[in-house]
Amino acid sequence: MSEYDGKNMNAIHVNLGPRSYDIAVVSNEIEPLGAFVRARTARSQLAFIVADSNTVGHAVDVADRLRQAGFKCETAAVPAGEESKCLAQAERLYDRLAELNADRQTLVVAVGGGVVGDLAGFVAATWNRGLPLFMIPTTLLAMVDSSVGGKVGINHPKGKNLIGAFHQPAGVWIDTQYLTTLPDREYLSGLAEVVKYGVILDTEFFGWLEANADAVLNRDPFALQHLIAQSCRLKARIVEQDEREESGLRMVLNYGHTFAHAFEAVSGYGTWLHGEAVAAGMICASRLAERLNLVSAEVTQRQVRLLEKFRLPTAPNEWPIEDLILSMRRDKKALAGTMRFVLPKRIGEVAVVDDVADSAVKEILKLLE
Amino acid sequence: MSEYDGKNMNAIHVNLGPRSYDIAVVSNEIEPLGAFVRARTARSQLAFIVADSNTVGHAVDVADRLRQAGFKCETAAVPAGEESKCLAQAERLYDRLAELNADRQTLVVAVGGGVVGDLAGFVAATWNRGLPLFMIPTTLLAMVDSSVGGKVGINHPKGKNLIGAFHQPAGVWIDTQYLTTLPDREYLSGLAEVVKYGVILDTEFFGWLEANADAVLNRDPFALQHLIAQSCRLKARIVEQDEREESGLRMVLNYGHTFAHAFEAVSGYGTWLHGEAVAAGMICASRLAERLNLVSAEVTQRQVRLLEKFRLPTAPNEWPIEDLILSMRRDKKALAGTMRFVLPKRIGEVAVVDDVADSAVKEILKLLE
Known about the structure:
2 copies of one chain form a homodimer.
Chain A: E1 10-14, E2 21-26, H1 33-40, E3 46-52, H2 56-68, E4 72-78, H3 87-99, E5 107-112, H4 114-126, E6 133-137, H5 140-146, E7 151-156, E8 159-166, E9 171-175, H6 184-201, H7 203-211, H8 213-217, H9 221-241, H10 257-267, H11 274-291, H12 297-309, H13 321-332, E10 338-346, E11 349-357, H14 358-367
Parallel strand pairs in A: 2-9, 3-4, 3-5, 5-6, 6-9
Antiparallel strand pairs in A: 1-2, 7-8, 10-11
C-alpha cells in the first residue's frame, strides 16, 4: 500500500495467502480510488457497480473515478432494504451481467451497506465461477463487519444468509465521509460491533473508545478512521486463522450474538437493528459470565456505561423468556439442557463455554425484566 | 483407501490440500458404499440425494446403503435433461433443504449424469456457504470428466454454466455397472473425452485403448475400471496443479473443444452430443497441427482410426464456415485475426499455440467439407 499511504490513509492487509487483500480507510478522499482499484484488477475492462436507492449518488462518484482509471462502467440499483437480499434480485443482476457480456475479468463493485455487499458479493462469487469483487461500504456496520471475512449471500424465506459462499474481495475502500449522512440510529447501531471487538480482543482499544466517546459520537473523521481501521484489523486477525469457519476460532466474533439472534427472532426482524440487539446481547452474556464467576461486575459495568454513552440498549425488552430460550436452543443446536456461549474473561478476552445450563440463562433474562 | 482396496477396487486420490478427496472405481459392488461415505462425512446425519427421472432407481439403492451406514435419507428428483440445470430447479432444491432443516453437515449426494452433478453440486456449494458433496456419476462422461475438478454450476439463458462455483466433493463413487444400461450413443460419446486424455497426456494409455478397443466397446467391466480410473488419474494430475483455472495449465483439457463448442453452437445444442463434437473437434485440431508442421499425418490418422472404431464423427457436418469461425472467435476472445488453440505435438503431448491465423482455421474446415 506504499503508493497511497501519504495522505491520511490507513491500510489494513488481510493475509489469506492467494486470497489476500487490502482495506484502505480514508476520509473524504475519492481521488486515489481509481488507481487503488486498477492496481488490484489489472486485467479488468468492465466495472459493474451495484448500489441501492440510497447509495446511487455515491455509485455515480465511484463510476467517475473508475472511468478515469480506464474502466467501462455500468451501474445497477436494487431497492434499499433487507428484502433485496433474495434470489430474484440476484437473477436480475445475473441478467445484467449476461447482457453486458461480462467476462471472467469483469469487476463487481458493491457500493452500499451490508445488503448490497452481500447480494453483489454473492453474484460475484457465482457468475462465471467467480468474478473479482471490490467493496465500498457506506454504513458503519458494513465497514467494520462485512468488509472483512468474505461472507457473501442472500436470504431464503426460511432463514437469513442460507444461500451463500465465501468469496474474498480484491480490495475494500472505506471513506468515513459516507458516514456523515448516515441516520443516527443506524450509525449508533454499528458502534455495537466496534465495542464488541474491544471486549473480545483488545482492552486498549476498549479504553480508547471510553476516552474518545464524544469524538466518536461527533463522527470526527480522525476518530472514525482509527476506529474503523482497528476494528477491521482485529477481525482480520481472526479471519486469517479461520477463513471458512472450520476451526471454531471465528466463533469468538459471536460474542453477544446468541442472545441477539433470539431478540431479533422473537421481536420480529426489524424491530431492533442488528447492532441494538448485539448491544443488549453482550450485556446479557457478560452478566451470565458474572453468574458463572468468570468476571467481576465491573467488567459488565464498563460495557454498560460505554453502550449507554452510545445510546444503545443494554437489556432486552419484555419478550417472553420461554420463547427466547427456545430460539437460542434452536440457534445453537445444543445438547439437551445446556447451551454454548462466548463469554468474557476480562475486557479484551473471551472464552467459549460449552455447557451453560438453560436455568442459568433464564435467571439472567429474569433479572433484566 | 486401504480399507476397501481388497476387492477389485481402483482408487484415485485427488490431492488438493485440505480439499483432497478419493475416487473409488468399482464394478457392481454397492455394499462398501455406506462405509466409504461414512468414513468421509463422520458428522453428517442427513443425506439429501438428488437424482433425475432416469436415475431414481439407482438413488433408491444408494439410499438403502446410506441408511445402513446411519444416515437419514431424503431424495429429490429433477426432470432428466439439460433444461434442469437452471435457477428454478436450484430453488426447488433449496426449498427442500430448508424444509428438511438441513444443517452445515448435511450431505448432498448427486446420483446421475453431468446435469445432476452440476446442479446438485451448485446447490451444495451455496447452501449454508457450502455443504459436503458426494458424487455418484452414472454416465461415462460424468465419470471421466465432471467427477474430477470441482466445477459445478447451472445455465443462464445466455450461456452454459454461467452461474457456478468451484466446490470439491468429499468423495466420488464410480460403479461401472451403471454403464450397462446407458444408451449406445451416450456411452460412445463419453469415449471421446477418454481418447482426449490419451492424446494430451498419455501415449501408453492411447495405445491401450487401441489394443483393447473391442473390450471397451463390449463394456467389459475390467476394461471399464481401468479406462475410468486412468482418465480420472490423468485429469486429477492437471487439476491438482491448477485447481481454479488460474495458471492456464488446465487449458490443455480443452483439446478439441474450441472446434467442438463452435459445432455445438452453430448446429444448435442437442444436434450432436458433447463427446461427438469433441471427437470431430480433436481431428480438426490435429489437422491444424499438421498444417502448422507440428505433427505428421500419422498422429491424426491414429486418432481417426480409434474414434471411427468407437463410431464417433471425425469431421463436422456442412455448417457454414463463416459462422463457425465467428463462434470460435467469440469463444476465445482472441486478438483480431488470430486464435489460441490446444494442438498435439505427438500422441501424449499437446501445446498451447497462441497466434493461429483465422485463414489457417478456415482452410482446415474447408478441407473437411
